[in-house]
């Protein structure tokens, strides 16, 4: 049965039904993979299993699956205007392929090929003990005090005699970069530079990038904090040629960004790497919030929209990048703008209602 919140307008919706079935572990063992296109849905199945696969499709896409028997013109009926029926052909392709080991990829894009999931996602290697922790501040919406709290934590760490690398990871609406522009008017290097350098770095662990950035950041020390702004010039907000998602999709190590930031922190001799991320469900933030090794700190007010959105973020993390190992830190929360004459517990209940 098609989930009630899905309407089959295009192949994207048809594929979403398959993704839901996979998440619920309802795929038949003889369905190896699925690949959707704008004009057809191709399913890789085990030899001699067409009949059972068609029966399953009938159940999953009821009442939209149309079985044309031996003619091979099976299809799914899409949402259509009256008198103009639209369909998506289904191609059943027999295969002996084995599903690859599923690996955690920290992005929001749906996979090109949906494979039968035979085991749990393979998480990235745990950070060595000599690397500083990476803390990422994130929020579902802006204006909740995320940047303010990132700066406050950086200052508190400095007051506690800790060394900090503070990164403005918001590449669309930089906050730290603007606030500290007068203190660091001509930054020697920026976060956008780091991303582009890693993208073109021939060394497997971006050693050349880390060496160069370490040297440049010696001139970006403000009140004991190494500052890495989003851009060297704040007016270049639209000049981002290489984005974080390019590293995730194009590099052999999809966690190269997190790994590089931790190694950069080690090279600088800092105790903590703090990153202020872009708000919302964005690929600009996904590389870090979908890395279970990162200390993910979510900032929210008690407004219904902010609480609900933060809840969705947690559901996404639980599905894509849960903390499953002893050394994987659990997400943390900061609730802001809480009226002094009210208890947080009561306000949370009101927000949920």
Give me the secondary-structure topology.
Blueprint lengths: L10 H13 L7 E6 L4 E5 L4 H11 L4 E2 L8 E3 L9 E8 L19 E2 L18 E5 L7 H14 L4 E6 L6 H4 L11 H9 L7 H10 L4 E2 L2 E4 L15 H7 L5 H13 L3 E6 L5 H7 L5 E6 L3 H17 L11 E4 L8 H9 L1
Parallel strand pairs: 2-5, 7-11, 7-12, 8-10, 8-11, 12-13
Antiparallel strand pairs: 1-2, 1-6, 3-4, 4-5, 9-10
Helix pairs in contact: 6-8, 10-11
Cα Rg: 24 Å
Structural class by sheet pairing and helices = alpha/beta
Strand content: 15-25%
Query: Total domains, how many?
Result: 2
CATH class label of the largest domain: Alpha Beta
State the helicity in percent bands.
Answer: 25-40%
SSE string, helices as H and strands as E = HEEHEEEEEHEHHHEEHHEHEHEH
Poorly predicted regions = none
For the largest beta-sheet, the strand count, sense and barrel status come to:
7 strands, mixed
What is the 3D form? elongated
Count every helix, treating DSSP H or I runs of 4 or more residues as helices: 11
- Second-tier CATH architecture of the largest domain: 3-Layer(aba) Sandwich
- State the end-to-end CA separation: 30 Å
Major beta sheet, strand line-up? 9-10-8-11-7-12-13
**Oligomeric organization of the protein chains:** single chain
CATH topology of the largest domain: Rossmann fold
- Please identify which CATH superfamily of the largest domain we are dealing with: P-loop containing nucleotide triphosphate hydrolases
Could you tell me the number of beta strands?
Answer: 13
Mean pLDDT: 89
């Amino acid at each position: 049965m098609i989930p009630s919140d899905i309407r089959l307008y295009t192949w994207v919706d048809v594929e979403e039904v398959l993704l839901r079935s996979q998440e619920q572990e309802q795929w038949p063992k003889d369905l190896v993979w699925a690949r959707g296109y704008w004009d057809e849905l191709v399913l890789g199945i085990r030899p001699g299993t067409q009949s059972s696969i068609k029966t399953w499709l009938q159940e999953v896409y009821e009442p939209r699956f149309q079985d044309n028997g031996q003619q091979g013109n099976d299809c799914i009926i899409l949402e259509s205007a009256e008198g103009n029926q639209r369909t998506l052909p289904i191609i059943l392709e027999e295969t002996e392929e084995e599903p690859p080991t599923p690996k955690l990829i920290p992005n929001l894009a749906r996979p090109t090929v949906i494979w039968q999931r035979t085991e749990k996602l393979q998480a990235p290697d745990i950070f060595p003990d000599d690397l500083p922790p990476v803390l990422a501040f994130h929020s579902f919406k802006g204006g909740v005090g995320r940047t303010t709290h990132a700066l406050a934590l950086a200052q508190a760490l400095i007051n506690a005699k800790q060394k900090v690398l503070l990164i403005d990871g918001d590449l669309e609406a930089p906050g730290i970069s603007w606030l500290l522009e007068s203190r660091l008017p001509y930054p020697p290097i920026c976060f956008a530079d780091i991303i582009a350098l890693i993208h073109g770095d021939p060394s497997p662990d971006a050693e050349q990038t880390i060496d160069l950035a370490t040297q440049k950041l010696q001139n970006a020390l403000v009140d004991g904090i190494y500052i890495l702004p989003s851009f060297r010039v704040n007016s270049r907000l639209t000049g981002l040629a290489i984005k974080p998602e390019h590293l995730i999709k194009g590099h052999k190590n999809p966690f190269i960004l997190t790994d590089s930031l931790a190694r950069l922190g080690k090279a600088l001799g800092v105790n903590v790497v703090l990153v202020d991320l872009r708000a919302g469900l964005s690929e600009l933030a996904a590389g870090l919030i979908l890395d279970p090794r990162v200390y993910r700190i979510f900032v929210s007010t008690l407004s219904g929209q902010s609480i609900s959105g933060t809840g969705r973020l947690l559901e996404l993390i639980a599905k894509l990048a849960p903390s499953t190992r002893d050394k994987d830190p659990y997400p943390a929360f900061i609730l802001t703008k809480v009226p002094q004459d009210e208890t947080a517990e009561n306000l949370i209940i009101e927000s949920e209602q």
